[in-house]
Amino acid sequence: MVLKIESNVKLSFGEMYVVIYQSGPHLPYVILDAGYGNDSSVWEKTAGEIGEFANVIVYDRAGVGKSSNSCHPRTAFWMAEELYEIMENLDIDSPILAGHSYGGVIHRVLADRYPTKTAGLVLIDSTPHDYQNRFLPNMSEAFQNSYYSQFTKEGNAENFKESLKQLQNCSNLLDVPVTVLSAGKKQHYNESSQTLWHDMQREMLQITKSRSTFLIAEHSGHFIQREQPEVVIDAVRSMVISLMKNDEEKRQV
User: What GO annotations for molecular function exist for this entry (predicted)?
Assistant: First the structure.
């Protein structure tokens, strides 16, 4: 039975709205992180399902949804630090980090800073560090204008640009499994831009020396967790099963 617990966690910079799906004390934790400007409701089709085989954390980042504002700059570095403070506050050690879009940026920065505190990464159509200078110029002027006009909810465009620089500066070669999910039906993408997107997503496998997996959600746009939730659920399940099997083998040695 999955127990759903909603709470406001008091941290050094304010209060964060956190939802925990508890399944059992011996199951691993999975932290789900939304994209830029989105709150935890984007996981409504996946969190409970993942909670059937793992303990799950979803939360609203500072200034979004039901969480209070933060005094920290709205960059990936500080958002990763705030998430790490949640982990410490709730005594969660080495969770699987599953981040969508900008949430994947935050998780990669956290994993780079705290490599021993991360069990694995599931990157869900995550933003590449070179998105703005390598991918965006291939898109129409209208698309680019729409892209830059979105930065009003969590800092501004300069904060986001700084976050991508922070991601680029991540230098640790991780030793944890990484699964990359790439959306196969991106809105406004032609064949060449869709191919480039998949190539850039596939390149993220290079951040680890451990097992890595690349999957395309053929029938999904950017929000894979909403359009093809089973793809996200299955990817997380596979990683949970693999990690639990490895832990069991270590205990038997």
Answer: hydrolase activity
